[in-house]
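**User:**
My hope is that you can spare some time for a protein that puzzles me. This is the protein in question:
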Amino acid sequence: MAPAKKKSKVTSLTKRAFEKICSALEKSILEEEESANFVCAGVIPVTKTGTTNRQAGSSSSPIRIFWERQNQSNLAILPIDTPYLGPCSSDVVLGQLVADCEAASFGRRGEEVMDPAYRKVGKLDPHRFATIFHPAEFAIFDEIEKFLAPQLKIWDNDPLARRRIRAELYKLNSHWPLPSHVDTPRSKNQIGSLVVCLPSTEGGDLAVRHNGRERLLLWAEKSTNSVQWAAFYSDCEHEIKSISSGYRLTLTYNLYIYEPLEKLQVISPTELESLIFYDDLKNLLKTP
């Protein structure tokens, strides 16, 4: 009978070790889900010539914005007050662009309203302006697909479905500090927004909040000489902090999710160590 008791004791210890590892794995999964990305962001320096060499690091040439005013074409070049860019980069030209923006409505409690006392925003619709800047040249959409799309629980019955993002230019906006708000999705397939902040102001950090968590993007530090962008889900609150001088100009893109068109490749054995749960799974498999 003694050997049987010893075997029972070993089985009990093995079971407890197994349960402990399973508990640790569950905790790791829950913590990762809690800290899942709800915003991704980046910075693109603006230089005299610009480069889109991704290996060397991308930079943008000065941003040119064309718009029509009283049947005449106008041009603003950013950053402002840059000597080699000439008069098109002056405060006067930028001020005229802002003045030519229409008042913009916004969503509040399910309705489209216009209330400058609460939220002072101007807009140019896409048919009224053009710009040489395009996010695809700087792999911004690739970053959004990498960090935000995999977490969308849309096709749960097919975990290998590849989620692709389509972006649609929505507006050019000019605005002052904005109170915390949530944008209104324009369709059921819209999953978020991409905001591209142009180098036209001083100040204006961006705060993005989701499910009680906040990420503060320190845009003020590079607001005069860089393009800064942030993409976030439609249910995120966001707020523009204090602006010291100038005008905040942004390009806003609506982000839509594609139907899955292809399968993701199963991760190869040589890449398993990069998985966040690798150590927990390894310990679990080592348990006798």
